Amino acid sequence: MPLKDHPFFGRPLPEVRDANFAGKLFAIEGADGSGRSTQIAQLSQWLEANGFAVRHMGLRRSNLVAEELEDAKQGNVLTHTTLSLFYATDFFDQLVHEIIPALRAGLIVLADRYIYTLMARAIVRGADRDWTRNLYSPALVPDAVFYFRVGAGQLVERNFQKNPTLDYWESGMDLGLSRDMFDSFIKYQRLIATEFQRMAKDHAFTVINANLRVETIQRDLRRQIGRHLGLPAV
After folding, report:
1. Domain residues of the chain, as ranges?
2. What is the pTM of this model?
3. What angle, rounded to 10 degrees, do the helices at 181-203 and 152-162 form?
4. Is it the case that residue 1 has pLDDT exceeding 60?
5. What is the CB neighbour count within 10 angstroms for residue 23?
6. Minimal CA–CA distance to 145: which of 208, 198, 195?
7. What is the chain's Cα-based Rg?
């Protein structure tokens, strides 16, 4: 696999002196219920069957702050700025200690959501766009980003299929959009979707219609990722 010079969105972290990596980074973005986990699991099996070692990353998985972040969210008392900084710490700890070592070793890193979700959440909660972009400027630019687009109404149905209640934070209840969680969920997810539409243009996302059959989406992902890895068309 040829070396890839991964660019950064801005100035790289001090810990990252050599950005020539043999591995590749693919980000799968989308709301809860959009089908990310299913597609990533199938992609992992396919990549490993083709001889690639795979590493996963996602939100709230840092050894440094993942547990503390989850505990803090349970109290629903975090300010929006504190929440953004918490998530940024979680991300960059994974970037330095998990993602970059894996890329240097030639692994394929599949990100179950990346900085784009964190940026959208922060901006919807009132964070300044320039401040948010600067906060995540040391992040690596993925080799490809796939955004799973699903309507807010469909997301509600999918979430209820998995859980009897909607999630407080995924419903944007901290924003005061509505006292009704169902109504707040719809409004919040539409706000997030609007931010993703903006970022899709700015960052050249591949937008996936996540209402399609699982098999159809998987074939499309394999075809596009396969091109990056020199694999024959599926």
Report:
1. 23-229
2. 0.91
3. 120
4. no
5. 24
6. 208
7. 18
